[in-house]
Amino acid sequence: VAGLGNYGLWGTRHSVGMEVLDRVARQLAVTEGWRMDKRCCADVALATAHGVELVLLKPRRFMNLNGLSVACAAEIYNLGPEDIYLVHDDLDKALGKVAIKLGGSARGHNGVQSCISALHSNKMTRLRIGIGRP
C-alpha cells in the first residue's frame, strides 16, 4: 500500500496519501515500525491485517517520482502491479469523498503516472481521496 505525496510537505492536499497511511499504521498499531529503506528511498512499515501481510510505503521523493520508490519496493517484496494499492489525492472528487479504481489511466495525476511508467503497468488498485478544487 503506497501513500503517494510530496515527502516532507505534511498537511498539504497533495500529501493526503501519506497521511492516510499514517492513520492506517496507527489503526494497525505499527506506528513505531516505520523505517527508512535506502534501497527504495521510502519509509516502510510491515503490518498484518486479517491474516494478510502488508507493506506500507511512503516514498521519500517528490510526487512525480513516487513510482521509482514503488517499483523498487515491488521488486524487493516480490509484488506485481496487481498486488499494489496506491492511495492518492483526487482534485476531481469533492473534499472527503473516496473512490476505488482498478487500473486505467492516471487521469493527469503525476504520482500515478510515475507509478504506471515505473511499473510498466496500470493494473494497480487506487484509493482516490477527494481534495476538491482550491
Automatic annotation (TrEMBL):
Keywords: Hydrolase, RNA-binding, tRNA-binding. Pfam families: Pept_tRNA_hydro (PF01195). GO terms for molecular function: peptidyl-tRNA hydrolase activity; tRNA binding. CDD domains: PTH. InterPro entries: Pept_tRNA_hydro, Pept_tRNA_hydro_sf. The keyword S-adenosyl-L-methionine does not apply. The keyword tRNA-binding applies. This is PTH hydrolase. It comes from Falcunculus frontatus (Eastern shriketit).
